[in-house]
Design a protein that fits this description.
This protein has about 350 residues and is mainly α. The protein has one domain. It contains 16 helices and no strands. The chain is globular.
Length: about 350
């Protein structure tokens, strides 16, 4: 039985479970699927892009998929459960439930990555501890640290939604953080390095707060406005491309040009979220493939980097390093397929509850 056959069998059984959910849940699963596809594509786009042409293509492509982290944070805010925080035990129950869902798999995968993938620690416990608490065991893991900060702040955010002034303050934190980064990089000539510019909650909190507002029906999009928002979104993508090339060519800030954390990228991410909120109830049949990817998204996020490393070595051996676009597509699709296959098989062996709780699968 081929690997593809295994994947199709597990995908069909998984999809039967997903289709029992309400359509609104399926819409967010599809959005998760789109976001994790963007995450994998972002990391795949950085492979063999050393030439100026490939780097230019990579930079343009990045502006199309830079919505990944903002969308994931928005979804996290949207699905934050409602709690009445009246006593200390209410806070403790909330934090235990929310944090355990991400920290157990995160710590386990940190151990696995150190033991089997990264061999440069040499049991330097001080460096291991520092990298774990700052999300530097693997590049994408900074997201976990950001999410922990947002969960800790959630009770404060949840009590702020009835106040216009507080809404404005929470929503303004991310734009203000962006202005600080622009001031540091363009005026002070100090290029803050990854992941330090992405770790503070202030950079992302506005997207989380948008999710909270949306789940309380305080962020609604009228049908007549969808077309205008789509046009603005397309314009924001062109703006992001222009800004990226400006930062690259004029200031030589390549990491800043690629980054999701810049004004144009945040603008396009907000507009994409608004489009989604406007169309999600009118779409009855969401992509089956995206729904499956959405269900597996956290697991894919946790271990896709080693799988991508394997895929890039294979495609490079076959000469695809000379064809950047082809390698990007093959690597991205291959990683998603292999990750889904691994997750489906692990769920089959260990059970869904165990694999989700401890492995993030």
């Amino acid at each position: 039985m081929t690997l593809l056959h295994h994947f199709l069998i597990h995908s069909k059984s998984a999809y039967k479970v997903f289709t029992k959910m309400k359509n609104k849940d399926l819409s967010f699963q599809a959005l998760r699927g789109l976001a994790i596809t963007a995450v994998v594509a972002i990391h795949a786009s950085g492979i063999n892009n050393e030439t100026e042409l490939n780097y230019g293509l990579s930079m343009i492509f990045r502006q199309l998929v830079n919505f990944a982290v903002p969308v994931f944070i928005f979804i996290s805010g949207y699905f934050t459960p409602s709690y009445e925080f009246t006593k200390l035990s209410d806070y403790l129950v909330f934090y235990r439930k929310r944090l355990s869902r991400i920290l157990f798999p995160y710590l386990l995968w940190c151990i696995l990555i150190i033991l089997f993938y990264k061999h440069n620690y040499q049991w330097n416990w001080s460096k291991i501890f520092t990298d774990v608490i700052t999300g530097q065991i693997l590049g994408p893991y900074y997201f976990i640290i950001v999410l922990v900060q947002l969960i800790l702040l959630m009770p404060l955010m949840a009590t702020s939604t009835k106040s216009i002034v507080k809404n404005f303050l929470w929503l303004s934190l991310s734009p203000l953080s962006l202005l600080g980064l622009y001031f540091s990089r363009l005026y002070l000539n100090y290029d803050v390095q990854f992941p330090w510019y992405a770790l503070p909650f202030t950079v992302w909190v506005s997207f989380y707060y948008l999710g909270i507002l949306a789940t309380q029906s305080k962020l609604t999009i009228k049908n007549r406005n969808i077309r205008k928002i789509i046009l603005l979104y397309i314009a924001s993508i062109f703006l992001a491309i222009l800004e990226a090339f400006f930062l690259w060519k004029v200031y030589n800030l390549t990491s800043f040009a690629d980054s999701q954390i810049k004004i144009s990228s945040f603008l396009s991410s907000v507009l994409l979220i608004l489009i989604f909120l406007g169309v999600r109830k009118s779409i009855e049949n969401w992509s089956r493939f995206l729904i499956i990817l959405g269900e597996f998204s956290f697991g894919i996020y946790l271990f896709h980097i080693p799988v991508l490393d394997l895929m890039s070595r294979i495609t490079s051996k076959f000469g695809f390093q000379n064809f950047w676009i082809a390698q990007l597509l093959i690597n991205s699709c291959g990683v998603l397929a292999l990750c889904c296959l691994i997750i489906a098989m692990v769920r089959k062996v260990t059970g869904v509850q165990f694999s989700q709780k401890y492995l993030g699968m």
